Amino acid sequence: MKNLFEATTVKGRMAVLRADSARQWGKMNAAQAMEHCARGMELALGDRRPPRLLIGRILGPIIKPKAFVESEPMRRNSPTVPGLKVEDETDFVRGRERLCGLVDRFVASGPGGCTDHPHSFFGRLTPDEWSAWMYKHLDHHLRQFGV
């Protein structure tokens, strides 16, 4: 499965993204998407530790196997973990630099750097699952802007 421990292709795609790239779905602009993805990376690194959602406790085990299928990208307009939504205006260049720094930190720390805190919807994830999910999440938002 594609994963973020091999981040070169994702970072290359992030470099192509522009502040004025038109979204193909959703409400965020490119700058907001970079901040949103940075907040997602903070989940995987353990910098953000939101509580488990009741709906995730119920549906997470059912949806997780379907969400982690490699050949299936994340669905458009998928629900967002509370605290990751970005509705205010953000600086695109700073957001992309912040996200790249978090990706570099994730890659450099390897599996041992992944949080053991459960994902708020899916529950406990292994380092390989965190890496695959972060790749899918970044891929999802890069595809959102045609990159």
Structural description of this entry:
This protein has 147 residues and is mainly α. 51% of the residues lie in helices and 0% in strands. The chain is built from 5 helices and no strands. The protein has helices at 8-16, 30-45, 54-67, 92-109, 127-144. The protein is globular, with a radius of gyration of 14 Å. This is DUF1569 domain-containing protein. InterPro entries: DinB/YfiT-like, DUF1569. It comes from Tunturiibacter gelidiferens.
Largest sheet: none
Order of helices and strands: HHHHH
State which percent range the strand residues make up: under 5%
Describe the global form. Answer: globular
- What integer value in Å does the Rg equal? 14 Å
Tell me the number of strands.
0
Mean pLDDT: 94
Query: What structural class do you assign from the helix and strand content?
Result: mainly alpha
How many structural domains does the protein architecture include?
1
Question: Keywords for this structure?
Answer:
single chain; 147 residues; mainly alpha
In short:
It comes from Tunturiibacter gelidiferens. The protein is mainly alpha-helical.
SSE topology sketch:
Blueprint (H helix, E strand, L loop, with lengths): L7 H9 L13 H16 L8 H14 L24 H18 L17 H18 L3
Helix pairs in contact: 2-4, 2-5
InterPro entries: DinB/YfiT-like, DUF1569
Pfam families: DUF1569
Protein name: DUF1569 domain-containing protein
